[in-house]
Amino acid sequence: MKSDLEISQSVSPKHIKEIASGLDIAESHLHYYGPDKAKLPLSLIDKGRMGNANLILVTAITPTPAGEGKTTTSIGLGDGLNRLGKKAITVIREPSLGPVFGIKGGAAGGGWSQVIPMADINLHFTGDFNAIEKANNLLAALIDNNLHSKTGNLGIDPRTVLWKRCMDMNDRGLRNIVSGLGGKAGGIPRETGFNITAASEIMAILCLSEDFEDLKGKLGNIYIGDTWEGKPVFARDLKAEGAMAVLLKDAIKPNLVQTLEGNPALIHGGPFANIAQGTNSVIATKMGMSLADYVVTEAGFGADLGAEKFLNIKCRKAGLSPKAIVLVATIRALKYHGGKALDQLKEPDTAALKAGLPNLERHITSLKSFGLPIVVSLNSFASDSEEENKVLMDHCKKMGIPVALSEGWAKGGEGCLALAEAVVKAASQCQGRFHPTYGLDDPIREKMEKICRTIYGAKHVLLTNKASSQLKRFEALGFSNLPICMAKTQKSLSDDEKMLGRPENFDIHIREFEIAAGAGFVIPIAGNILRMPGLPGRPASEHIDIDGEGQISGLF
Questions:
Q1: Domain 128-247 carries which CATH code?
Q2: The CATH fold of domain 444-526
Q3: Catalytic residues
Q4: pTM of the full predicted structure?
Q5: pLDDT tens digits for 164-220?
Q6: What CA–CA distances, in Å, run from 300 to 170, 281, 425, 508?
Protein backbone atom coordinates (compact mmCIF):
# COMPACT_ATOMS: atom_id res chain seq x y z
CA MET A 1 0.00 0.00 0.00
CA LYS A 2 1.38 3.39 -1.00
CA SER A 3 1.94 6.04 1.66
CA ASP A 4 0.19 9.41 1.40
CA LEU A 5 3.42 10.99 0.20
CA GLU A 6 3.96 8.29 -2.45
CA ILE A 7 0.40 8.77 -3.69
CA SER A 8 0.89 12.53 -3.93
CA GLN A 9 4.19 12.08 -5.77
CA SER A 10 2.52 9.73 -8.29
CA VAL A 11 0.32 12.54 -9.65
CA SER A 12 1.71 15.26 -11.91
CA PRO A 13 0.05 18.53 -10.89
CA LYS A 14 -1.41 20.90 -13.44
CA HIS A 15 0.20 24.28 -13.79
CA ILE A 16 -1.44 26.53 -11.25
CA LYS A 17 -2.55 28.94 -13.98
CA GLU A 18 -4.86 26.17 -15.28
CA ILE A 19 -6.45 25.86 -11.85
CA ALA A 20 -6.83 29.65 -11.69
CA SER A 21 -8.36 29.73 -15.16
CA GLY A 22 -11.08 27.32 -14.01
CA LEU A 23 -12.02 29.92 -11.39
CA ASP A 24 -11.96 32.74 -13.96
CA ILE A 25 -8.84 34.26 -12.38
CA ALA A 26 -6.64 36.13 -14.84
CA GLU A 27 -2.97 35.10 -14.88
CA SER A 28 -2.02 38.70 -14.04
CA HIS A 29 -3.53 38.15 -10.57
CA LEU A 30 -1.22 35.24 -9.76
CA HIS A 31 1.84 35.70 -7.56
CA TYR A 32 3.70 32.50 -8.41
CA TYR A 33 5.57 30.33 -5.91
CA GLY A 34 6.72 27.88 -8.54
CA PRO A 35 4.47 26.24 -11.17
CA ASP A 36 2.07 24.57 -8.71
CA LYS A 37 1.15 27.23 -6.15
CA ALA A 38 0.37 30.93 -6.15
CA LYS A 39 -0.86 33.70 -3.88
CA LEU A 40 -4.02 35.59 -4.77
CA PRO A 41 -4.75 39.31 -4.22
CA LEU A 42 -7.48 40.46 -1.85
CA SER A 43 -9.12 42.29 -4.75
CA LEU A 44 -10.65 38.97 -5.88
CA ILE A 45 -13.12 39.10 -3.00
CA ASP A 46 -16.52 39.99 -4.47
CA LYS A 47 -19.11 40.66 -1.77
CA GLY A 48 -21.90 40.67 -4.34
CA ARG A 49 -21.14 37.13 -5.49
CA MET A 50 -20.50 35.78 -2.00
CA GLY A 51 -24.21 35.81 -1.18
CA ASN A 52 -24.90 33.13 -3.80
CA ALA A 53 -22.29 30.69 -2.50
CA ASN A 54 -23.02 27.63 -0.36
CA LEU A 55 -20.61 27.54 2.57
CA ILE A 56 -20.23 24.00 3.96
CA LEU A 57 -18.56 23.44 7.35
CA VAL A 58 -16.83 20.12 8.07
CA THR A 59 -16.33 19.25 11.74
CA ALA A 60 -16.09 16.00 13.73
CA ILE A 61 -16.96 14.00 16.81
CA THR A 62 -14.45 13.97 19.67
CA PRO A 63 -11.23 12.78 17.99
CA THR A 64 -8.92 9.94 18.95
CA PRO A 65 -5.12 10.40 18.97
CA ALA A 66 -5.05 9.22 15.34
CA GLY A 67 -7.47 11.91 14.09
CA GLU A 68 -10.72 11.20 12.31
CA GLY A 69 -10.10 12.57 8.82
CA LYS A 70 -11.73 16.01 8.66
CA THR A 71 -9.22 17.27 6.11
CA THR A 72 -9.44 14.07 4.06
CA THR A 73 -13.23 14.35 4.13
CA SER A 74 -13.17 18.06 3.22
CA ILE A 75 -10.94 17.45 0.19
CA GLY A 76 -12.87 14.37 -0.91
CA LEU A 77 -16.15 16.26 -0.55
CA GLY A 78 -14.80 19.12 -2.67
CA ASP A 79 -13.74 16.63 -5.35
CA GLY A 80 -17.11 14.86 -5.10
CA LEU A 81 -19.02 18.13 -5.60
CA ASN A 82 -16.93 18.89 -8.68
CA ARG A 83 -17.72 15.40 -10.02
CA LEU A 84 -21.40 16.27 -9.63
CA GLY A 85 -20.82 19.25 -11.92
CA LYS A 86 -20.78 21.83 -9.13
CA LYS A 87 -18.25 24.64 -9.13
CA ALA A 88 -16.62 23.83 -5.79
CA ILE A 89 -13.49 24.86 -3.94
CA THR A 90 -11.93 23.51 -0.74
CA VAL A 91 -10.66 26.10 1.77
CA ILE A 92 -8.57 24.73 4.64
CA ARG A 93 -5.78 25.56 7.10
CA GLU A 94 -2.02 25.36 6.64
CA PRO A 95 -0.18 22.63 8.58
CA SER A 96 2.11 23.55 11.46
CA LEU A 97 5.63 22.12 11.46
CA GLY A 98 5.17 21.11 15.10
CA PRO A 99 2.71 18.27 14.42
CA VAL A 100 4.41 17.45 11.09
CA PHE A 101 7.71 16.62 12.81
CA GLY A 102 6.09 15.59 16.08
CA ILE A 103 3.14 13.21 15.98
CA LYS A 104 1.31 13.26 12.66
CA GLY A 105 4.00 13.44 10.01
CA GLY A 106 1.76 15.31 7.54
CA ALA A 107 -1.49 17.26 7.36
CA ALA A 108 -2.66 17.77 3.78
CA GLY A 109 -5.38 15.13 3.65
CA GLY A 110 -4.72 11.47 3.00
CA GLY A 111 -4.85 8.68 0.45
CA TRP A 112 -6.56 9.89 -2.74
CA SER A 113 -8.07 12.94 -1.05
CA GLN A 114 -5.07 15.23 -0.78
CA VAL A 115 -3.94 18.69 -1.72
CA ILE A 116 -0.66 18.99 -3.58
CA PRO A 117 2.27 19.66 -3.63
CA MET A 118 1.98 17.74 -0.37
CA ALA A 119 5.61 18.04 0.75
CA ASP A 120 5.74 21.80 0.15
CA ILE A 121 2.43 22.38 1.92
CA ASN A 122 3.63 20.45 4.96
CA LEU A 123 6.99 22.22 5.11
CA HIS A 124 7.63 25.94 4.59
CA PHE A 125 4.96 26.32 1.86
CA THR A 126 4.87 30.02 0.88
CA GLY A 127 6.42 31.31 4.12
CA ASP A 128 3.22 32.44 5.88
CA PHE A 129 4.15 30.88 9.22
CA ASN A 130 7.65 32.38 9.01
CA ALA A 131 6.16 35.84 8.47
CA ILE A 132 3.79 35.41 11.42
CA GLU A 133 6.69 34.28 13.58
CA LYS A 134 8.76 37.33 12.61
CA ALA A 135 5.88 39.76 13.27
CA ASN A 136 5.31 38.14 16.66
CA ASN A 137 8.99 38.32 17.59
CA LEU A 138 9.34 41.90 16.37
CA LEU A 139 6.77 42.92 18.97
CA ALA A 140 8.62 40.92 21.63
CA ALA A 141 11.87 42.69 20.70
CA LEU A 142 10.16 46.11 20.83
CA ILE A 143 8.78 45.36 24.29
CA ASP A 144 12.19 44.35 25.64
CA ASN A 145 13.78 47.34 23.96
CA ASN A 146 11.29 49.68 25.65
CA LEU A 147 11.97 48.10 29.02
CA HIS A 148 15.71 48.63 28.50
CA SER A 149 15.73 52.05 26.85
CA LYS A 150 15.27 55.43 28.55
CA THR A 151 14.11 56.99 25.25
CA GLY A 152 10.36 56.67 24.85
CA ASN A 153 10.10 54.42 27.89
CA LEU A 154 6.45 53.66 28.63
CA GLY A 155 7.06 52.58 32.21
CA ILE A 156 5.96 48.99 31.60
CA ASP A 157 6.05 46.74 34.66
CA PRO A 158 8.09 43.73 33.41
CA ARG A 159 6.17 41.42 35.74
CA THR A 160 2.94 42.09 33.83
CA VAL A 161 4.23 41.51 30.29
CA LEU A 162 2.13 38.76 28.70
CA TRP A 163 3.68 38.66 25.23
CA LYS A 164 5.95 35.73 24.38
CA ARG A 165 8.14 34.88 21.43
CA CYS A 166 7.13 32.04 19.11
CA MET A 167 8.55 29.45 16.73
CA ASP A 168 6.88 26.84 14.56
CA MET A 169 8.27 23.72 16.20
CA ASN A 170 7.39 21.63 19.24
CA ASP A 171 9.98 22.40 21.93
CA ARG A 172 9.03 21.94 25.58
CA GLY A 173 12.38 23.38 26.67
CA LEU A 174 11.24 26.84 25.56
CA ARG A 175 7.91 26.94 27.40
CA ASN A 176 9.38 28.83 30.34
CA ILE A 177 12.65 30.75 30.11
CA VAL A 178 14.45 33.74 31.61
CA SER A 179 15.49 36.41 29.12
CA GLY A 180 17.67 39.51 29.45
CA LEU A 181 20.60 37.81 31.16
CA GLY A 182 24.21 38.82 30.57
CA GLY A 183 24.47 42.02 32.56
CA LYS A 184 23.24 45.54 31.93
CA ALA A 185 23.72 45.32 28.14
CA GLY A 186 21.48 42.24 27.99
CA GLY A 187 18.33 44.12 28.98
CA ILE A 188 15.94 43.57 31.87
CA PRO A 189 15.94 39.98 33.19
CA ARG A 190 12.44 38.55 33.37
CA GLU A 191 10.53 35.30 33.12
CA THR A 192 8.97 34.65 29.72
CA GLY A 193 8.72 31.80 27.20
CA PHE A 194 7.81 30.68 23.69
CA ASN A 195 4.53 29.71 22.06
CA ILE A 196 4.24 27.59 18.93
CA THR A 197 3.45 29.86 15.96
CA ALA A 198 -0.02 28.39 15.44
CA ALA A 199 -0.90 29.48 19.00
CA SER A 200 0.35 33.04 18.53
CA GLU A 201 -2.23 35.81 18.68
CA ILE A 202 -0.75 37.07 15.40
CA MET A 203 -2.04 33.89 13.75
CA ALA A 204 -5.50 34.45 15.19
CA ILE A 205 -5.42 38.10 14.10
CA LEU A 206 -4.33 37.30 10.54
CA CYS A 207 -7.12 34.75 10.21
CA LEU A 208 -9.82 37.14 11.46
CA SER A 209 -8.71 40.22 9.51
CA GLU A 210 -10.73 41.53 6.58
CA ASP A 211 -8.01 43.60 4.87
CA PHE A 212 -4.75 45.48 5.55
CA GLU A 213 -6.38 48.30 7.51
CA ASP A 214 -8.29 45.85 9.67
CA LEU A 215 -5.07 43.86 10.17
CA LYS A 216 -3.18 46.95 11.38
CA GLY A 217 -6.00 47.92 13.71
CA LYS A 218 -6.07 44.47 15.28
CA LEU A 219 -2.28 44.37 15.62
CA GLY A 220 -2.36 47.73 17.40
CA ASN A 221 -4.98 46.43 19.84
CA ILE A 222 -2.75 43.65 21.19
CA TYR A 223 -2.68 43.90 24.99
CA ILE A 224 0.92 43.70 26.22
CA GLY A 225 0.73 44.30 29.97
CA ASP A 226 0.49 47.22 32.40
CA THR A 227 2.53 50.20 33.50
CA TRP A 228 3.76 50.49 37.08
CA GLU A 229 0.64 52.58 37.74
CA GLY A 230 -1.65 49.82 36.45
CA LYS A 231 -2.49 51.43 33.10
CA PRO A 232 -2.92 48.94 30.20
CA VAL A 233 -0.32 49.03 27.43
CA PHE A 234 -1.11 48.02 23.84
CA ALA A 235 1.05 47.35 20.78
CA ARG A 236 -0.08 50.67 19.31
CA ASP A 237 1.60 52.43 22.25
CA LEU A 238 4.89 51.06 20.90
CA LYS A 239 3.94 52.14 17.36
CA ALA A 240 4.46 48.51 16.38
CA GLU A 241 1.49 47.77 14.13
CA GLY A 242 2.83 49.31 10.91
CA ALA A 243 6.09 47.38 10.88
CA MET A 244 4.34 44.18 11.93
CA ALA A 245 1.84 44.56 9.08
CA VAL A 246 4.71 45.06 6.62
CA LEU A 247 6.09 41.66 7.62
CA LEU A 248 2.64 40.18 6.89
CA LYS A 249 2.13 41.88 3.51
CA ASP A 250 2.31 38.59 1.58
CA ALA A 251 1.13 36.29 4.36
CA ILE A 252 -2.30 37.96 4.32
CA LYS A 253 -2.89 36.69 0.77
CA PRO A 254 -4.47 33.21 0.40
CA ASN A 255 -2.55 30.39 -1.30
CA LEU A 256 -4.03 28.63 -4.34
CA VAL A 257 -3.14 24.96 -4.85
CA GLN A 258 -5.00 21.90 -6.19
CA THR A 259 -6.29 18.51 -5.16
CA LEU A 260 -5.02 15.25 -6.65
CA GLU A 261 -7.99 15.44 -9.04
CA GLY A 262 -7.00 18.89 -10.27
CA ASN A 263 -9.68 20.81 -8.41
CA PRO A 264 -8.95 24.17 -6.73
CA ALA A 265 -8.09 24.59 -3.06
CA LEU A 266 -7.20 27.61 -0.95
CA ILE A 267 -4.93 27.03 2.03
CA HIS A 268 -4.41 29.91 4.43
CA GLY A 269 -3.61 30.30 8.12
CA GLY A 270 -3.67 27.69 10.84
CA PRO A 271 -4.63 28.67 14.42
CA PHE A 272 -4.98 25.81 16.89
CA ALA A 273 -8.55 25.08 18.02
CA ASN A 274 -7.86 24.27 21.67
CA ILE A 275 -6.43 27.77 22.31
CA ALA A 276 -7.65 29.89 19.35
CA GLN A 277 -10.43 29.75 16.74
CA GLY A 278 -9.11 26.72 14.83
CA THR A 279 -10.09 27.64 11.28
CA ASN A 280 -8.62 29.15 8.12
CA SER A 281 -8.71 32.88 7.40
CA VAL A 282 -11.82 34.99 6.87
CA ILE A 283 -10.13 36.35 3.74
CA ALA A 284 -9.65 32.86 2.23
CA THR A 285 -13.22 31.85 3.04
CA LYS A 286 -14.65 35.00 1.49
CA MET A 287 -12.40 34.62 -1.54
CA GLY A 288 -13.57 31.04 -1.99
CA MET A 289 -17.18 32.23 -1.81
CA SER A 290 -16.36 34.83 -4.46
CA LEU A 291 -14.90 32.25 -6.84
CA ALA A 292 -17.12 29.16 -6.50
CA ASP A 293 -20.70 28.07 -5.83
CA TYR A 294 -19.79 25.56 -3.11
CA VAL A 295 -17.06 26.25 -0.52
CA VAL A 296 -16.01 23.36 1.70
CA THR A 297 -14.11 24.39 4.81
CA GLU A 298 -13.24 22.77 8.14
CA ALA A 299 -12.84 23.67 11.80
CA GLY A 300 -10.26 22.04 14.02
CA PHE A 301 -10.73 19.10 16.40
CA GLY A 302 -14.27 18.13 17.44
CA ALA A 303 -17.44 20.16 16.99
CA ASP A 304 -17.33 21.25 20.64
CA LEU A 305 -14.24 23.35 19.87
CA GLY A 306 -14.04 23.80 16.10
CA ALA A 307 -17.65 24.27 15.03
CA GLU A 308 -18.58 26.33 18.09
CA LYS A 309 -15.75 28.80 17.51
CA PHE A 310 -16.20 28.83 13.74
CA LEU A 311 -19.79 29.97 14.21
CA ASN A 312 -19.72 32.07 17.38
CA ILE A 313 -16.42 33.84 16.62
CA LYS A 314 -15.48 33.68 12.93
CA CYS A 315 -18.90 33.72 11.29
CA ARG A 316 -20.29 36.32 13.66
CA LYS A 317 -17.32 38.65 13.06
CA ALA A 318 -17.26 38.10 9.30
CA GLY A 319 -21.01 38.08 8.67
CA LEU A 320 -20.96 34.51 7.35
CA SER A 321 -23.34 31.58 7.84
CA PRO A 322 -22.91 28.02 6.52
CA LYS A 323 -25.68 26.30 4.58
CA ALA A 324 -24.87 22.88 6.09
CA ILE A 325 -22.61 21.19 8.63
CA VAL A 326 -20.88 17.87 7.94
CA LEU A 327 -20.10 15.91 11.11
CA VAL A 328 -17.30 13.39 10.50
CA ALA A 329 -17.54 10.16 12.49
CA THR A 330 -15.51 6.98 12.37
CA ILE A 331 -16.22 3.49 13.60
CA ARG A 332 -12.84 3.31 15.33
CA ALA A 333 -13.36 6.57 17.24
CA LEU A 334 -16.79 5.55 18.47
CA LYS A 335 -15.43 2.20 19.64
CA TYR A 336 -12.68 4.10 21.46
CA HIS A 337 -15.33 6.23 23.19
CA GLY A 338 -17.18 3.03 23.98
CA GLY A 339 -14.24 1.70 25.99
CA LYS A 340 -12.24 -0.19 23.34
CA ALA A 341 -8.45 -0.01 23.77
CA LEU A 342 -6.58 2.12 21.25
CA ASP A 343 -4.55 -0.85 19.95
CA GLN A 344 -7.70 -2.97 19.44
CA LEU A 345 -9.81 -0.58 17.37
CA LYS A 346 -9.36 -2.59 14.16
CA GLU A 347 -11.18 -5.53 15.72
CA PRO A 348 -14.94 -5.72 14.95
CA ASP A 349 -16.93 -4.89 18.09
CA THR A 350 -20.53 -3.70 17.72
CA ALA A 351 -20.98 -3.62 21.51
CA ALA A 352 -18.17 -1.07 21.92
CA LEU A 353 -19.52 0.86 18.94
CA LYS A 354 -22.99 1.10 20.47
CA ALA A 355 -21.46 2.15 23.79
CA GLY A 356 -19.67 4.99 22.00
CA LEU A 357 -22.67 6.30 20.04
CA PRO A 358 -23.65 8.78 22.80
CA ASN A 359 -20.61 10.87 21.84
CA LEU A 360 -22.02 11.22 18.34
CA GLU A 361 -25.46 11.99 19.81
CA ARG A 362 -24.06 14.79 22.00
CA HIS A 363 -22.36 16.47 19.04
CA ILE A 364 -25.55 16.22 16.96
CA THR A 365 -27.57 17.74 19.81
CA SER A 366 -25.03 20.56 20.19
CA LEU A 367 -24.97 21.32 16.46
CA LYS A 368 -28.77 21.35 16.29
CA SER A 369 -28.70 24.39 18.60
CA PHE A 370 -27.28 26.43 15.70
CA GLY A 371 -30.33 25.73 13.55
CA LEU A 372 -28.44 24.49 10.48
CA PRO A 373 -28.86 21.25 8.45
CA ILE A 374 -26.53 18.44 9.55
CA VAL A 375 -25.10 15.54 7.55
CA VAL A 376 -23.09 12.76 9.20
CA SER A 377 -20.13 11.54 7.16
CA LEU A 378 -19.01 8.04 8.06
CA ASN A 379 -15.32 8.17 7.17
CA SER A 380 -14.52 4.64 6.04
CA PHE A 381 -11.52 2.55 7.09
CA ALA A 382 -10.56 -0.88 5.76
CA SER A 383 -11.00 -2.41 9.23
CA ASP A 384 -14.67 -1.34 9.47
CA SER A 385 -17.13 -4.22 9.15
CA GLU A 386 -20.39 -4.00 7.21
CA GLU A 387 -22.28 -4.77 10.41
CA GLU A 388 -20.59 -1.86 12.22
CA ASN A 389 -21.34 0.50 9.35
CA LYS A 390 -24.99 -0.55 9.42
CA VAL A 391 -25.25 0.02 13.18
CA LEU A 392 -23.99 3.59 12.86
CA MET A 393 -26.01 4.46 9.76
CA ASP A 394 -29.21 2.99 11.21
CA HIS A 395 -28.63 5.00 14.40
CA CYS A 396 -28.30 8.24 12.44
CA LYS A 397 -31.48 7.50 10.50
CA LYS A 398 -33.36 6.89 13.76
CA MET A 399 -32.22 10.33 14.89
CA GLY A 400 -33.48 11.82 11.62
CA ILE A 401 -29.99 12.83 10.48
CA PRO A 402 -28.84 12.15 6.88
CA VAL A 403 -25.73 9.96 6.77
CA ALA A 404 -23.41 8.95 3.94
CA LEU A 405 -20.42 6.65 3.67
CA SER A 406 -17.28 8.60 2.77
CA GLU A 407 -14.52 6.69 0.98
CA GLY A 408 -12.38 9.63 -0.05
CA TRP A 409 -9.15 8.12 1.26
CA ALA A 410 -9.48 5.05 -0.95
CA LYS A 411 -11.36 6.46 -3.96
CA GLY A 412 -11.02 10.27 -3.93
CA GLY A 413 -14.00 12.23 -5.22
CA GLU A 414 -15.69 9.09 -6.54
CA GLY A 415 -15.83 7.76 -2.99
CA CYS A 416 -17.54 10.94 -1.77
CA LEU A 417 -20.34 11.19 -4.34
CA ALA A 418 -23.01 10.01 -1.90
CA LEU A 419 -21.77 12.53 0.68
CA ALA A 420 -21.72 15.29 -1.93
CA GLU A 421 -25.31 14.53 -2.95
CA ALA A 422 -26.43 14.58 0.69
CA VAL A 423 -24.67 17.92 1.25
CA VAL A 424 -26.25 19.52 -1.83
CA LYS A 425 -29.69 18.40 -0.63
CA ALA A 426 -29.05 19.64 2.92
CA ALA A 427 -27.77 23.03 1.73
CA SER A 428 -30.88 23.50 -0.40
CA GLN A 429 -33.01 23.02 2.72
CA CYS A 430 -31.24 25.63 4.83
CA GLN A 431 -33.86 27.99 6.25
CA GLY A 432 -31.68 30.95 7.26
CA ARG A 433 -28.67 32.06 9.26
CA PHE A 434 -27.24 30.20 12.24
CA HIS A 435 -28.36 30.92 15.81
CA PRO A 436 -25.43 32.05 18.04
CA THR A 437 -24.98 30.28 21.38
CA TYR A 438 -24.84 33.57 23.27
CA GLY A 439 -25.26 37.29 22.77
CA LEU A 440 -22.25 39.60 22.73
CA ASP A 441 -23.97 41.75 25.35
CA ASP A 442 -24.21 38.81 27.74
CA PRO A 443 -21.78 38.99 30.70
CA ILE A 444 -18.60 36.95 30.19
CA ARG A 445 -19.63 34.49 32.88
CA GLU A 446 -23.00 33.92 31.20
CA LYS A 447 -21.37 33.40 27.78
CA MET A 448 -19.16 30.69 29.23
CA GLU A 449 -22.08 29.00 30.96
CA LYS A 450 -24.13 28.95 27.77
CA ILE A 451 -21.26 27.34 25.82
CA CYS A 452 -20.57 24.77 28.52
CA ARG A 453 -24.22 23.78 28.96
CA THR A 454 -25.36 23.95 25.34
CA ILE A 455 -22.29 22.59 23.56
CA TYR A 456 -20.50 20.39 26.12
CA GLY A 457 -23.47 19.27 28.23
CA ALA A 458 -21.82 20.49 31.46
CA LYS A 459 -23.66 21.52 34.66
CA HIS A 460 -21.69 24.47 36.01
CA VAL A 461 -18.66 26.67 35.34
CA LEU A 462 -16.33 27.00 38.34
CA LEU A 463 -13.62 29.68 38.56
CA THR A 464 -10.47 29.70 40.66
CA ASN A 465 -9.72 32.80 42.71
CA LYS A 466 -7.09 33.77 40.14
CA ALA A 467 -9.60 33.45 37.29
CA SER A 468 -12.21 35.49 39.19
CA SER A 469 -9.69 38.27 39.79
CA GLN A 470 -8.63 38.28 36.12
CA LEU A 471 -12.25 38.34 34.98
CA LYS A 472 -12.92 41.47 37.03
CA ARG A 473 -9.80 43.08 35.57
CA PHE A 474 -10.80 42.36 31.96
CA GLU A 475 -14.34 43.59 32.57
CA ALA A 476 -12.92 46.80 34.03
CA LEU A 477 -10.80 47.24 30.88
CA GLY A 478 -13.94 47.12 28.71
CA PHE A 479 -13.61 43.64 27.22
CA SER A 480 -17.02 42.34 28.37
CA ASN A 481 -18.62 42.49 24.91
CA LEU A 482 -16.06 40.24 23.22
CA PRO A 483 -16.85 36.67 22.16
CA ILE A 484 -15.49 33.72 24.13
CA CYS A 485 -12.73 31.41 22.88
CA MET A 486 -12.76 28.44 25.24
CA ALA A 487 -9.41 26.70 25.78
CA LYS A 488 -9.78 23.09 26.84
CA THR A 489 -8.70 19.61 25.88
CA GLN A 490 -9.84 18.36 22.49
CA LYS A 491 -9.90 14.77 23.77
CA SER A 492 -13.12 15.03 25.75
CA LEU A 493 -16.34 17.02 25.83
CA SER A 494 -15.32 17.88 29.40
CA ASP A 495 -12.10 19.52 30.61
CA ASP A 496 -10.71 16.13 31.66
CA GLU A 497 -9.18 14.23 28.74
CA LYS A 498 -9.83 10.90 30.48
CA MET A 499 -13.62 11.40 30.39
CA LEU A 500 -14.39 9.76 27.05
CA GLY A 501 -17.74 9.13 25.41
CA ARG A 502 -20.54 11.40 26.61
CA PRO A 503 -19.71 12.59 30.13
CA GLU A 504 -22.64 13.44 32.40
CA ASN A 505 -23.00 15.66 35.48
CA PHE A 506 -19.61 17.32 35.13
CA ASP A 507 -18.40 20.86 35.76
CA ILE A 508 -15.97 22.97 33.73
CA HIS A 509 -13.13 24.39 35.84
CA ILE A 510 -11.63 27.68 34.64
CA ARG A 511 -8.06 27.93 35.89
CA GLU A 512 -7.29 31.38 34.49
CA PHE A 513 -8.12 33.84 31.72
CA GLU A 514 -6.15 35.31 28.86
CA ILE A 515 -7.20 38.22 26.69
CA ALA A 516 -6.58 38.36 22.95
CA ALA A 517 -7.60 42.00 22.55
CA GLY A 518 -6.12 42.18 19.06
CA ALA A 519 -7.92 39.10 17.78
CA GLY A 520 -10.96 40.25 19.72
CA PHE A 521 -11.85 37.46 22.14
CA VAL A 522 -11.57 36.44 25.80
CA ILE A 523 -9.88 33.09 26.50
CA PRO A 524 -11.06 31.10 29.55
CA ILE A 525 -8.54 28.32 30.15
CA ALA A 526 -9.90 25.03 31.48
CA GLY A 527 -7.23 22.61 32.58
CA ASN A 528 -3.58 22.58 31.57
CA ILE A 529 -3.57 23.83 27.97
CA LEU A 530 -0.09 24.32 26.50
CA ARG A 531 0.75 26.92 23.86
CA MET A 532 4.07 25.16 23.23
CA PRO A 533 3.69 21.39 22.74
CA GLY A 534 6.49 18.92 23.31
CA LEU A 535 7.71 16.17 21.01
CA PRO A 536 6.58 12.58 21.62
CA GLY A 537 9.02 9.85 22.60
CA ARG A 538 9.31 8.74 18.97
CA PRO A 539 8.74 11.88 16.88
CA ALA A 540 7.72 11.61 13.23
CA SER A 541 10.97 13.37 12.31
CA GLU A 542 12.81 10.07 12.86
CA HIS A 543 11.26 8.75 9.63
CA ILE A 544 11.58 11.89 7.49
CA ASP A 545 14.51 12.01 5.05
CA ILE A 546 15.70 13.34 1.70
CA ASP A 547 17.88 11.54 -0.84
CA GLY A 548 20.60 12.77 -3.16
CA GLU A 549 18.04 13.58 -5.86
CA GLY A 550 16.06 15.81 -3.49
CA GLN A 551 13.24 13.27 -3.11
CA ILE A 552 11.55 13.54 0.29
CA SER A 553 10.32 10.47 2.17
CA GLY A 554 8.58 9.78 5.47
CA LEU A 555 6.06 12.63 5.41
CA PHE A 556 3.25 10.26 6.44
A1: 3.30.1510.10
A2: Formyltetrahydrofolate synthetase; domain 3 (3.10.410)
A3: 70, 72, 93, 104, 273, 301, 381, 409
A4: 0.94
A5: 999 999 999 999 999 999 888 888 899 999 999 999 999 999 999 999 999 999 999
A6: 18, 13, 25, 21
